[in-house]
Write a structure and sequence with these properties.
This is Uroporphyrin-III C/tetrapyrrole (Corrin/Porphyrin) methyltransferase. Keywords: Cobalamin biosynthesis, Methyltransferase, S-adenosyl-L-methionine, Transferase. It comes from Dethiosulfovibrio peptidovorans DSM 11002. GO terms for molecular function: methyltransferase activity. The chain has 568 residues and is an alpha/beta fold. The chain folds into 5 domains: 3-114, Rossmann fold (3-Layer(aba) Sandwich), CATH 3.40.50.11220; 125-200, Udp-n-acetylmuramoylalanyl-d-glutamate--2,6- Diaminopimelate Ligase, Chain: A, domain 1 (3-Layer(aba) Sandwich), CATH 3.40.1390; 204-319, CobE/GbiG C-terminal domain (Nucleotidyltransferase, domain 5), CATH 3.30.420.180; 327-432, 3-Layer(aba) Sandwich (Cobalt-precorrin-4 Transmethylase, domain 1), CATH 3.40.1010.10; 438-556, 2-Layer Sandwich (Methyltransferase, Cobalt-precorrin-4 Transmethylase, Domain 2). Helix content is 32%, strand content 25%. Strands 2-1-3-4-5-6 form a 6-stranded mixed sheet, with helices on both faces. Strands 7-11-10-8-9 form a 5-stranded mixed sheet. The protein starts with a strand and ends with a helix.
Length: 568
């Protein structure tokens, strides 16, 4: 994306620099009296414009340049202190809402949205179009469709038989015929009703050939006529393909740039390898090829009808169903209460179409965060099933949050998700762990270090856990024990006591429901610990050799001068 960041004050320049770095954009710092001219110069070359300052200034300088929601760059305002981010124009079709959300996350700022559907967490058709990189027809009907979503009504969608069903979120229902649909998904040139919008996937590939030196305008006219003849919208074009020799033609290069689609060259051997009953072509005599337009179109998928040949140009169309790339977030939700969840975790959940996870962790999320999202809850022992489901949704194009309590890399879902993901993009969002919060609640017991182990032997053999316990006890550091599962728990606790048998007076701090309502703490001698004292919601803290109890707190000593003096 081409993103321009404007800062006209000394105060705003540092924030502007951060914005440009976060968005991989260009920072522009004109004088105040040069702002309008500088903005006008880059307007049509930009996908988004970020203004550092007030909404008033941004509105005044951009208003004369605004022409079309779909063509204009999105305009985002960031306050000079970097605390607020507001999508001003182009929130949906211009991609401003998603870009502003991403920028707010990078800056640690508050996102201020004034668009009703965004504030209600409703995925409007124009927002989906922007996210998917598609085009939209029937914009006048958006008032009706978006209003229906805001009123809690469902939108009916119909998908062309040759297209794959895109990842519609909650609030959309499939229907059988285009006439009854509110939202139509098709690359074809359709006649829409007053209540209908069309989402146009870029599922067509044009194979094109031409004589040397054919003008861009002639190429464009031939392409448009052929699309019209076959009944397709120009917005359905996602790519132009041609031979290596023709890929150097200025007309084709210029047409590709004008339409905003890539021009892909196919090597001669690749063209010769494509099977098909192609029309006779001059390329056979000149280049020993079965043709250019039709083979190149067929290389993408199903060939749509014969080519058109006129005025020294050839055009053929190939169809490949457009696919939406999904994403899998593995989100650490912290120990429980929402106040311990990171800003990044909330942003990931807000950005997601679906939330999948262990029932307890999903239910701990605020209800309003889950509105209009697909939600899947799983029980204990269904870890692989929940990861597989999250991956299946992401492969269909959904953005999915796989939630994991605490930190997902610590006895959580991150490892399994990475191992199962294959080529699927995965982003791990760290979270505050129960051990961190327990340490803060108990005092400061980890100054020299912390060892964390799980007592669960459902996946790891107990012998391995015993060895780890012995090694941990020998270090003299504080140890946190997770997952005291009920199976053979008395045997496991005896193993813990055995590991600490050489340390007299070893205490254990039982931290239950850390970060949740009803949080409790109990301190006792390790030798007296029984299975009736703990459950799966209990974290066991075993203080290290240099850890002392002082005024109800557990404090580790590092050896600072003050600490040595205190101990003597």
């Amino acid at each position: 994306m081409n993103i321009a960041v404007f800062a006209i004050s000394a105060r705003g320049k540092s924030v502007g620099k951060r914005c440009a770095e976060a968005l991989n954009g260009k920072l522009i710092t004109p004088r105040r009296d040069e702002l309008k001219a500088s903005l006008s110069e880059i307007w049509h070359r930009s996908d988004a414009v970020v203004m550092i300052g007030s909404t008033g200034v941004a509105a005044r300088v951009t208003a004369p340049l605004l022409r079309d929601k779909e063509a204009d760059p999105a305009v985002i305002v960031v306050t000079e202190d970097g605390e607020l981010v507001l999508p001003l124009t182009g929130a949906h079709l211009g991609g401003g809402s998603d870009l502003a959300r991403s920028l707010a996350s990078d800056l640690g700022a508050h996102l201020v949205s004034t668009t009703s559907t965004d504030r209600m967490n409703v995925a409007a058709p124009d927002l989906l179009c922007s996210r998917w990189g598609w085009k939209l027809e029937g914009r006048k009907a958006l008032v009706q469709t978006n209003g229906a979503l805001l009123d809690g009504r469902k939108l009916l969608f119909w998908v062309d038989e040759n297209e794959e069903t895109p990842p519609f979120p909650e609030g959309y229902l499939p229907c059988e015929t285009p006439d009854e649909a509110d939202v139509l998904v098709s690359p074809r040139a359709l006649s829409l009703g007053s209540h209908q919008v069309q989402l146009i996937p870029p599922s067509l590939v044009a194979g094109m050939g031409c004589r040397k030196g054919v003008d861009r305008q002639i190429l464009k006219e031939t392409l448009l006529r052929h699309l019209s003849k076959q009944g397709y919208s120009i917005y359905s074009l996602g790519e132009i393909r041609t031979s290596t020799v023709k890929s150097r033609e200025k007309g084709l290069l210029s047409l590709s740039e004008e339409l905003g689609v890539p021009l892909t060259k196919l090597e001669d051997e690749e063209i010769r390898s494509i099977d098909g009953n192609f029309s006779a072509s001059a390329a056979t005599a000149h280049f020993d090829l079965p043709g250019v337009a039709e083979p190149c179109a067929a290389s993408a998928g199903r060939l749509i009808g014969p080519r058109s040949a006129e005025r020294g140009t050839t055009v053929a169309l190939g169809h490949r169903p457009a696919r939406i790339e999904g994403k899998l977030y593995v989100v650490g939700t912290g120990p429980g209460d929402r106040k311990y969840m990171t800003f990044q975790a909330k942003e990931a959940i807000d950005d997601s179409d679906a939330v999948v996870g262990y029932r307890l962790y999903v239910d701990q999320l605020p209800e309003e965060w889950l509105k209009r999202k697909k939600v899947e809850r799983y029980g204990m022992g269904e870890e692989e099933a929940r990861v597989a489901s999250a991956m299946a949704l992401a492969k269909k194009g959904f953005r999915v949050s796989l939630v994991s309590g605490g930190d997902p890399i610590l006895f959580g879902m991150a490892g399994l998700a990475r191992n199962m993901a294959e080529e699927l993009p995965v982003e791990v969002i760290p979270g505050l762990s129960a051990a961190q919060l327990a340490g803060a609640s108990a005092g400061a017991p980890y100054s020299n270090g912390l060892i964390m182990l799980s007592l669960s032997d459902y996946l790891q053999p107990w012998e391995s856990i015993e060895r780890a316990l012995s090694g941990a006890a020998s270090t003299g550091l504080t140890v946190a024990l997770y997952n005291p599962v009920r199976r053979d728990l008395d045997v496991k606790l005896e193993g813990v006591k055995k590991a600490y048998s050489t340390r007299d007076g070893q205490t254990v701090w039982l931290m239950r429901d850390v970060g949740r309502p009803g949080e409790s703490r109990k301190v006792m001698d390790l030798s007296e610990l029984t299975s009736s004292d703990i459950d799966m919601r209990t974290l066991l803290l075993l203080p290290g050799e240099d850890t002392v109890a002082r005024k109800g707190c557990l404090v580790d000593t590092r050896g600072y001068h003050f600490e040595r003096k205190k101990r003597t």
